[in-house]
Amino acid sequence: xxxxxxxxxxxxxxxxxxxxxxxxxxxxxxxxxxxxxxxxxxxxxxxxxxxxxxxxxxxxxxxxxxxxxxxxxxxxxxxxxxxxxxxxxxxxxxxxxxxxxxxxxxxxxxxxxxxxxxxxxxxxxxxxxxxxxxxxxxxxxxxxxxxxxxxxxxxxxxxxxxxxx
Length: 165
What we know:
The protein has helices at about 130-145, 150-160; strands spanning about 30, 40-45, 55-60, 75-80, 85-90, 95, 100-105, 110-115, 120-125. The protein starts with about 30 loop residues before the first strand and ends in a 5-residue tail after the last helix. The strands form 2 sheets. It has a 6-stranded antiparallel β-sheet, covered by helices on one side. The protein has a 3-stranded antiparallel β-sheet with strand order 6-5-8, with no helix packed on it. The chain is α+β, with helices and mostly antiparallel strands.
């Protein structure tokens, strides 16, 4: 059995370049929701040439997280760093513990919640690197009351950000 081929080269220089992206551990989170959930943008799609977006999701003890939904154009992967996170795996909720990983291809039903009453933390990765920051920031405005949307506006918001229930 032969190994899969590597993707075609995207860099054609003779020498490597010095462009990298570094986010230090001591930088504050980018968003803190009213319930204490903190979201850190580790690598935005704009910083990875659209390859992926990587986010750290630090749950507070308060129950939170989205119900089942899917994306048409992006995949989403979850890696539980600490605590226990409920993951919706297409047809049922399962407990994800530290070290557990779940990948969801485009169209795959998924969701995540912290219902443990304890803090938890996980990584979320979207591929390709869609601009999810605007989605997370608008959710913050909706939750803190600084923005209100009608049902048609909420539907358009979901469609614009490839979120389907």
